[in-house]
Design a protein that fits this description.
The chain is α/β, with parallel strands linked by helices. It folds into 2 domains: about 180 residues, 3-Layer(aba) Sandwich (Rossmann fold); about 60 residues. The protein contains 10 helices and 10 strands. Strand 1 and strand 2 form a beta hairpin.
């Protein structure tokens, strides 16, 4: 998907505090249609709080959230799916005792046209709707190479495959904006590379704008169009992967982490 000049999401001067602890300080950012937009920074920088604000889980004390040109007032998590915003979580949030296909089908709830009357009397329209939902779910399984696991219980799959199922369920809602909260956490090198390719595929083939938090800097630099760096709740840098790699404040923020990883 090519990056547009149209701003899909804008955060303006966001302040977020919990008690006396200020988590985000006057944070502003713009995400354009078609981007893979990554947010990086050391632990405790406030990255997950940003995703929780975009998803409506946290309400900032001040600032504006603007999505598709609309200022969001009294915005809550229950509104996000209706705006076309979907997400995955840092910790898996799947139905472990359901099959892969059934997990993906749960993501189709808003797209379903079920009526109580149709379900009670098994009307042809209900069957047609069920067939459509299943077809859409099967398309996503195919896109993410999950067809061979469709009937398996999620609990029987490897961690890497479970993360892919969660990604499939988020896509089932047909979002225009996808939030990925550490999609590669806990994966080995091969699994990370695989997920990175699927993220690019989703962006390019489904025309979905992606906002991602990820600790693996090599992957972030490889697939992102635009990167923002947070440190102690403040934006310290933004730009292309190349600009970020050369930025002195970014190098400084990460030096401690790199020194620890070297030992």
């Amino acid at each position: 998907m090519s990056v547009s000049s149209v701003v899909l999401l804008e955060l303006k001067a966001i302040d977020l505090s919990f008690g006396s602890s200020q988590v985000l300080k006057q944070l502003s950012l713009e995400v354009r249609e078609g981007e893979i937009y990554s947010l990086i920074g050391p632990n405790g920088a406030g990255k997950s709080s940003v995703i929780n604000i975009i998803n409506g889980i946290y309400q900032p004390q001040s600032g504006q959230i603007i999505f598709a040109g609309q200022v969001l007032h009294n915005y809550k998590a229950k509104h996000a799916p209706y705006l076309g915003i979907a997400r995955t979580f840092q910790n898996l949030a799947l139905f472990k005792q359901m099959s892969v296909l059934d997990n993906v089908l749960t993501g189709r709830v808003l797209k379903s046209r079920h009526s109580l009357l149709g379900a009670l009397f098994s009307l042809p329209s209900t069957q047609k709707n069920d067939d459509l939902q299943r077809f859409k779910a099967e398309e996503i399984l195919k896109l993410l190479n999950l067809q061979e696991y469709r009937d398996q219980l999620v609990s029987s799959l490897s961690y890497g495959l479970q993360k892919r199922v969660e990604l499939a369920r988020a896509l089932a809602a047909e979002p225009q904006f996808l939030l990925l909260d550490e999609p590669m956490a806990g994966m080995n090198h091969a699994e990370k590379r695989s997920i990175a390719k699927f993220i690019q595929k989703i962006n390019q083939q489904l025309d979905i704008t992606i906002f991602m938090i990820e600790h693996d800097l090599a992957v972030v630099m490889d697939i992102s169009d635009h990167i923002v760096v947070l440190d102690y709740g403040k934006k310290i840098a933004e730009g292309t992967p190349q600009q970020i790699q050369e930025h002195p404040e970014v190098l400084s923020a990460y030096l401690g982490i790199q020194a620890l990883e070297a030992h």
